[in-house]
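request received
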Amino acid sequence: MTNLIDVENLTVTFPTRQGEFEAVRQISFTLGQERLGIVGESGSGKSMTGRAILRLIRAPGRVTADKLHYKGRDLLKMSEREMQGVRGQEISMVMQDPKFSLNPVMTIADQIMEIYRFHTGASRKQAWAKAIEMLEAVSIRDPERVMRAYPHEMSGGMGQRIMIAMMLVTEPKILIADEPTSALDVSVQTQVLSIIDRLVRERGMGLIFISHDLNLVASFCDRVLIMYAGRIVEVCDADKLHEAKHPYTRGLLGSLPRLDAPQQRLEVLKRDPAWREAASVSGAS
Amino acid sequence: MSDISVENLNVWFGDHEERVDAVKGASFDVPSGSSFGLVGESGSGKSTILRAIMGLVPTWSGGLKIGDLTLGHKRPKTFYKDVQMVFQDPYASLHPRHSVDQVLGETLFLHGFKDVDRRILQLLDDVGLGREFRFRYPHQLSGGQRQRVAIARALAPEPSVILLDEPTSALDVSVQAEVLNLLSDLRDEHKLTYLMVSHNLAVVAHMCDATAVMQNGEIVEVLSVEDMRAMNPSHPYTRNLLEGSFGYKPTAEQSA
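response:
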């Protein structure tokens, strides 16, 4: 099987007054037609990894890599124009909070149709039909009404489903979901995940699922990368996450309160400076 | 004694056609020294109950009692000394241009303490922050450290009841563990009563003895921690929440 994404020694650097800060440090991984989870705490570089693939890191931030390939094409060598053909059409990204990622002064219809027409040059009528079809695919009842609505008329769960519909309307090969459900309630979260799950399986897409929720990733993904301080410290199969070996992963798992196993005190993660220095583990499958 | 008693509490916003009933007929009791959880989806009215107790919402009816004190719409000064609140987002609840010293000092001064200097150091010790944090500003602190400052501020007037509104939902799991441990220790040391709002059932089960489950402004069920751990709810909505907290499970229809 060929890899959809092939990353070698990816580094994301930001200049600061104290010198260069490396948010992502020399990580390597591949993505096939699978659900790949990236977990870690805030500041571990997981979102930056997702953004770097789409070249969404603005100057003065810098992305360097020995290899950053999408289906054998070098993303780093592409012009901004070529990149626009990749973004949204080949690789899409769903962000954390629909409140900040939908345009508040455009109707849902205009936003979905804009993306579709930009990438396919379809007529308004075709785009409208396609948008309705996508809204139905993400289980939105009464899509005609939703199409004419503005984002503020939608609830959080509806907004997130609209985001997903918008990102999938161009039928991309890869979906990068950056904490797609952390702003949602548990019941809505399950709904949104089952929609992503179904679409990924039906369309044979690759999914990069970025999250801080270990239980969620363990139950939703096929493979998990655990990031700490900009490096991958461990790679494991999602269903074996609970047998993870690295002390950091063990510490994170131990610090979760559990419904089925009451404890007096929660384990507190003791950080070892050596984790920061240890070389990144390769996430190639 | 500082038990909390809420009886037939109603909270509403707006008037006439615009009226929204945020909390409808909520009743529960929290015995002194124990912890009680409120769970439910966003918009179910759980935080509104805390705000009504705290006196932050003027439009409520029903009976609220803290110990022997029956709460009216105007609260005596002793109430604010006795009941304190910790908010969800430590990035929003601390004044960005007040140092830790000012935050704690102001609270202590307003409550009429004389030995402010000694108490600030004591409070920092209590919440596990070193003395070097005393003159820092919020932007120089991490999320967990800020939440510790917010907890120190709540402890400053020596309250017996602390209302916690999602105290760890803005924090990473490793930091959440530290803050939850701190809250348990403080409860034992200072004989505190907690009323805690959270959407995370595992957190509530860890901290609380009993939990009220809310949906659309109503309490659908009050459930003991044993029943919760045994997955033994009586209301279908609670079962839904409990199952959702174990991560993602494809439904039968999808895996088929």
